[in-house]
Task: structure prediction
Amino acid sequence: MKSSRNPFHPRFYFPLALVVFLFVLPILPRNPFYEDLILMIFFWGTLAAAWNLVGGFAGQISLGHTAFFGIGAYTSTLLWLKFGLSPWLGMIAGAGLAILVAIGIGVPCFRLRSHFFALATIAFAEVLRYVASYWRGLTQGGVGLLIPFKPGMENFMFRGKIPYAYIALGLMLLIILVSYITRNSRFGFYLISLREDQDAAETLGVNTSRCKLIALIVSVFFTAVAGTFYAQYLLFIDPDTVFSLPLSIELALLAIIGGLGTVIGPVIGAFILIPLDVLLRGYLGAISAGLNFIVYGIVLVVAVIYFPRGVAGWLKTWYEPFLRRLPGAKQALVTEVTVPSPALTTETSDPQDPDPEDEEAKSPLFQVHSLTKYFGGLAAVKDVSFEIKKGEILGLIGPNGAGKTTIFNLITGFLSTDSGKIEFRGEEITGLKPPHKVCLNHIGRTFQLVKPFNNMTVLENVMVGAFSRVRRASEARKEATKVLDFIGLLRQRDSLASSLTIADRKRLELGKALATKPELLLLDEVVAGLNPRETEEIISIIRAISRQGITLFIIEHVMKAIMTLSHRIVVLHHGEKIAEGTPAEISRDKRVVDAYLGEEYLA
Amino acid sequence: MAATLIQLVINGLLLGGIYALISIGLTLIFGVVEIINFAHGEFLMLSMYASFWLFQLCGVDPYVSLFMVIPSFFLIGWAVQRIIIQPIIHAPPLNQIFATVGMSLVLQNGALFLWKADYRTVRTAYSTFSLKTGGLMISFPRLVAFILALAIIAVLLIFLKRTYTGKAIRALAQEKRAAMLMGIDIYRMYKIAFGIGIACVGAAGAILIPIYYAFPTVGALFVLIAFVVVILGGYNSLVGALVGGLIIGLVEAFSGFFLSPHLKEAVYFVIFILILLLKPTGLFGRG
Amino acid sequence: MRKSTIGLLVASLLVFILCASPAVMAAEKVRIGALFPFSGPLALLGQESFNGATVAADIVNEKGGLWGKQIEWVKGDGVDPKKAMTECERLISVQGIKLIFGTYSSSRSYAASEVAERNRAIYWEQGAIADPITERGFKYLFRTCPRASQFGIMAVDFAKEVVAPKLGIDPKALKVAIMFEDSLYGTTVGSSAAQYALKQGIKVLATDSYSLKTVDLSPVVMRFKAREPDVIIATSYLQDGLLFWRQAKEADLNVKAFIGTGACHGMPDWAKTFGDEANYIFNIDPAIGINPDVLSPNTKAVLKEFRQKFNKKFGHLPATHASLGFVGAQVLFEEVLPKAGSLDPEAVRKAALEVDIPKGNTIFGFGVKFAPPAHPAAGQNLLAHPALMQWQEQQMWVVYPVEFGIRNPLLPLPSWEQRAKGETSFVK
Result:
């Protein structure tokens, strides 16, 4: 999509005006205290925005970010004090070291669930604090390191505060830019999707570990650089301040109050809380010690309970109408491309049986040989074999706990097989892991309990899937729009996924999977819990999918749906295949009726 | 040397008993409500102050104040669950973490506001009394803490196994959805579990005041250890909390003696990270 | 509604900031900045130091004030170094303060005095003891209290000159163990003791540091028990000191002499907790309980007045930190500022450099003379030194340096059991 920006549109000139304002800000007060305040806003804004990349976008709550801050501060300071290396270079060295450490600690820790991840990061920062305080030979321990004041550009030390303020501003604008680019790129979509639901993101082809790691590296880079900045500004560091747990909490606090996972939220948080902190300390702190922190704590509790979207969430509702009132708002910013919508034809006729001769001509698209999986001593899936032909709809039924979903999980890389073989398009894919590789291999799936990315819009949800095939956001948007049209969700494209009805969530689940362009699509109970009319609609969509040549493998409890949809059905019982055949054959099979169909089907 | 080693073991176990005592409540809350209570240490601090003031103003012995602290802290826990935790029970972990972090800020500084930064302690006849046998020293108040930790765990285990409420709480900890389908009032169970958790840490405070000191930031000293213990023991196992506490106590005693007193905390944090990475379910945790 | 809420918030912020500007403030008072950690982990002694200073100001104010004006404190809360820096900046450039009085904590003092120096405001340090504070060649920084290294050196000197002979041990054979907490205070004092002992050829069996935040010190106790030192030199804050003592008692750790270097071992809270068991313990601190023969008659009166006024105002007698605050403020208000004639930093600086208070004329007994700008410790009160005391009959008595001493040091330290039973003999 080609876009030419119109400089007279408020969407363009208003942010520009803000940036200009920021540039002017440091020279306005001509008073060191306010200069310090502005500088600190920039400094904390940078830190909070850096934290936000990991904590906000990727949803990995690090409470040990001071570890990287401290590494940055200590590295540059020690290099300067011991070897006279310019802190500018020390800053890069510190950031490099912090990134290495982050990779070392991040890769294993990212496997942990969020609460545990937070604890692990705290523990890590604490270990560094103890080491820095113990290793007196290197760090002078608790005495801390004093940096002699030798002003000069090359020494990263300045007489006044203005140069510091501009360095901090530069850092802050840089991290805002990084956040902005991230938010509007595939990477950003991936981060948010994995935050919302890691399994669903993997299924849509998101390499969640890699995404988290990249986010962490960028975040750590800025955090470590800010550490050097802090050292050069205060000219004194000690383990208790640069590795302190409260510092980690404070910078997360800014991001939360400002607006988690937004581009400018953390900076807004800094603009509000840093002056507030100084005021509260100055005025409440003078009345009685600790009073300022009580206010702080209450604000935090109220904010996370009642305003989890932060100030940026408020501003967002206010920003658009405000822009519309500014001069020039009537003009077009960019030319929007409207996507021609292919009409969705939903026929209600019965499925056409695939031509038996055709069928034989084609080799099976997908084969499972003697698949076995044990949980502890219990066989969840035992020696199951079947195959799916291209264009076929294969149903998989069985009572609860028969191992149906386990088979899906084995195929899509959520579980590893104990024995057996899975082949797709003639290649063995047994043990292909993690799930995003399976997705990229053109096998899609949906989940029994739908996993929408709640805090993303419907369009964005589907875009995550589309990104597995295209790189640019504009292309993904186009693809996703097509898919939304196909599944009948185009009207809700800008609603948050969390606001959808159950039926629409099921459609969305289909849409996300479809956007990954699968050849084989695994559907796990897509009509469960829907009323007959909704079921009918979903069934017609599934038929339409099948007509596009996508091979389907369906788990379903609603017998009517699976009997009408499937060409063939495999029946599982206690992890074993007990029957296979056409719907008609299955419904006549005595073992099946005994084991399972019985009352449910008759009822 | 043999005597030294045995003494180290004794010191480690007694210290571990204290850690276990503090961690029981956290384990219960973590296992059932699935929230890490970052304000856990502040409740310990509050109960230490409660016992201190009961002693100071009414002359109540800390071990007697136990019987007042436990029920009142149960109610406090109940209220905290109802007012602060319940609204965010389905919120993302981040909101949960920071709601409790905010609570800890308020409590810590509220204590500073009310009672200043002074160190308050109760000096009883048994504060530094130790049993001496064959050159070995066993601190009496620490032994009491150790025994009480065992007693609380035993009582809780019986409660969880035998009573309806206890079974319901266990069911909840294992499978929330199923418990809900079985007609268990999960919100009531959450309140009870949180209440019991806070009551446990309340008991810990009363037991600790003869050994330690109440001051506004005392909770922060203990809370990280409690996290380590809870994870080590498997975050939803009471026996795990006991064993985890004892292990950390022993690790501290030995690494402090043989390595350096300065690095003992670092050592158990490293162990903590390793456990998280190698066996995230802890020593006694279910998957 | 929401828009207006935010607008209101922003507006009230601006109003706050504007109100804080110096023009609004009344000008008929002598406004002195008081920068201490009033909240956070160091709040207790930060507040106590400031309390002592307020008594000095009260005394001056009662006599009609400074240059006929009342002294007014403008408080800043230095919770951590960065915040101390911000608060110092606020005091100087928003409140228009020209003289900052602080800080008790050395790390906060580093950061805040840097700000004062760059703003050409006087930084008057009364209690932060880290040596490097006055080793940066600052022009506007003055420190009235002794330095950390002096504490460690005095402990070792005492061990060598007094303890060893009294115990009948050759100083070279004297076995010393050193323990200290890991913050700036403990590390500076403890390391200086260790280094100095090495220079003096004294055997140091163990130099054990530990985290101030630790909840168990039995490993330190056990290590000392296993090594059997004659003398322990300890630098502890209150929380860790109390913990160590309880655990030392539980484990029955006995040595021949125990020398604490300030903080914990000089604090009433500690002494109260251990009662008779605190007897015989040595402590190094600037002391007001020195031999009154050292003090000038005028200073004796000042000391009496200070003790009375402090007790009346705060309900307990002043200990070391309050006294440090008092002396710092008293030198400033009664010696320096009257001569300076105004708060103009250059004038204050000139007056401070001219100050020459002989020995016996502060309540600590030491004199005051600030090192000139060219001196390696520019701004340091070169005459300041701590004293060494011993707890006897639940009170601290100065025993060293000898001329300051009121009582004779008693050695060796009786065992815990003997102390608890009061099987001790005190000789006046």
In short: Chain B has a mean pLDDT of 88. Chain B has eleven helices and two strands. Residues 2-32 of chain B form the longest helix (31 residues).
